[in-house]
Design a protein that fits this description.
alpha/beta; four-stranded parallel beta sheet; 47% helix; 16% strand; Rossmann fold; 2 domains; binds zinc ion; 14 helices; five-stranded antiparallel beta sheet; binds adenosine monophosphate
Length: 440
């Protein structure tokens, strides 16, 4: 039985998928305007660990979807206002946006491959710009249901109206939050993605183009006055995920949604609101969030400039596999500090593990099937407890260390007995490798 900490219920709950044996799983992906940093990678590696545990630990068949945000303020700014466009036509602007984001998307997948996240794990890797039509349909639905309004060429979500509706129906806006509504302007995404709104809380669903920006056209009907208008612009950030989730999963609500804690509000809260307002359904059944990677006590972020990319760490002598190992053996729900010491510590632990495994193999003195099974059970118990990887790795590390010391004493056993023990031991090692994504 797997238990996960659900950010909405704010407690550990038993995970039961909608369809027996199958899990639908969505993770918010990167905005491809720059290289990802190790903080971003913590979020993707956590999602990969969860994917691997669901698949290799629990035996589910998993449909994992991760979106690529290839249109937003930053991608537009960097692609169209930096001399990349051949001419001033919309086609040329769209094409430079597309080639610019493709470049960073390719680099992103290279970084993922280095930390053992392979493309073949994904059921789909949708790009936002491939789902513009689905986004328009959802926005039209939200407007038809009277949870949106058009203003100066943009469409906004009416949060106050939605909040009232939510209250009447036994839920609330802000359920993922810990939201202090008085401080909302401080949330960057909200302020960049919303302007000219009726209330401070409203967020943009469709953003009117500004001079020089690439755009899509959107024929939208305003039921209130029966008018059809053509809006030139692009989708807001939150609507991208809502539309792609609905388009890609057969089951809706799907099972698990993941992301970093900073996405709880407004991004995931607004995904829930859009989905309820437009499809009449909650999007996801379980919400899981990884805590931040810190550096000198502060969140690693582009805006603070306190970040390292994978390449930066490689130059400092830390291999991608050590970075991954460091991230997976720490509890995803706790803040962790990145430092040369913390990375070296993880590297040393990995080295010691490998040495001790080699010692066991070289002596051919494999632990008994019973001992392997007992340790594996403890490992599984820890992982089933909300992916408690520090406890799981401590069990595995302790087991290997102990066996590397006693194994030579067991040489006296008969050879076919050794074969059975060897098989079980090899299986256990392969199992741990398949869960942590690190070669042992
Ligand atoms: P972004 O491209 O900014 O939307 O971020 C991609 C993912 O990285 C999101 O899930 C963020 O929550 C996550 N993220 C960003 N910074 C950090 C950090 N310092 N630690 C952990 N996750 C982070
Ligand atoms: Zn998202």
């Amino acid at each position: 039985m797997l238990y996960l900490f659900d950010s909405r219920k704010k407690e550990k709950v038993e995970f039961i998928p909608v369809k027996e044996g199958e899990v639908s799983f969505y993770s918010c992906g990167p905005t491809v305007y720059d290289r990802v940093h190790i903080g971003n990678l913590r979020a993707f590696i956590f999602s990969d660990l969860l994917y691997r545990w669901l698949k290799n630990g629990c035996g589910y068949s998993v449909q994992w979807v991760m979106n690529i945000t290839d249109v937003d303020d930053k991608t537009i700014q960097k692609s169209c206002f930096s001399g990349m466009c051949k001419d001033s036509s919309n086609l040329s602007r769209l094409s430079s946006l597309s080639s610019f984001t493709k470049g960073y998307s390719d680099l992103f997948f290279k970084d993922l491959a280095k930390v053992s996240i392979v493309k073949s794990s994904f059921f789909s890797l949708p790009k936002a710009t491939d789902y513009i039509e689905e986004m328009k349909t959802l926005i039209q639905n939200i407007l038809d249901n009277d949870f949106a309004y058009i203003s100066d060429g943009s469409v906004y979500f009416d949060v106050l109206r939605y909040s009232e509706y939510a209250k009447k129906n036994g839920f609330e806006y802000g359920q993922l939050g810990h939201v202090d509504f008085d401080k909302m302007e401080e949330t960057k995404r909200v302020s960049t993605d919303s302007f000219d709104t009726r209330s401070d809380f409203d967020f943009v669903l469709w953003k009117a183009k500004k001079e020089g920006e690439p755009f899509w056209s959107f024929d939208i009907v305003d039921k209130k006055n029966g008018e059809s208008v053509c809006l030139y612009g692009r989708p807001g950030w939150h609507i991208e995920c809502s539309a792609m989730e609905k388009a890609l999963f057969n089951t809706f609500p799907f099972d698990i949604h993941s992301g970093g804690v900073d996405l709880c509000f407004p991004h995931h809260e607004d995904e829930i609101a859009q989905s309820r307002a437009g499809y009449g359904k909650d999007p996801a059944r379980y919400w899981v969030h990884n805590e931040h990677l810190m550096i000198d006590g502060k969140k690693m972020s582009k805006s603070l400039g306190n970040f390292y990319t994978l390449e930066d760490l490689e130059k400092k002598g830390f291999s991608p596999e050590v970075v991954r190992f460091f991230l997976v053996i720490n509890n995803y729900g706790k803040k962790i500090n990145l430092s040369d010491e913390s990375l070296s510590g993880a590297g040393k632990m990995l080295e010691r593990l490998r040495k001790n495994i080699k010692k066991i193999i070289d002596f051919s003195g494999y632990p008994s099937v019973d001992l392997c099974e007992k340790s594996k059970k403890k490992f599984e118990k820890a992982m089933n407890d909300n992916l408690n990887s520090p406890i799981a790795i401590a069990e595995f590390f302790g087991f290997i260390k102990k066996m590397s010391k006693v194994s030579s004493l067991e040489l006296a056993v008969e050879s076919d007995y050794i074969e059975t023990n060897k098989k079980k031991f090899d299986e256990y090692i392969l199992f741990v490798e398949s869960v942590f994504g690190v070669k042992l």
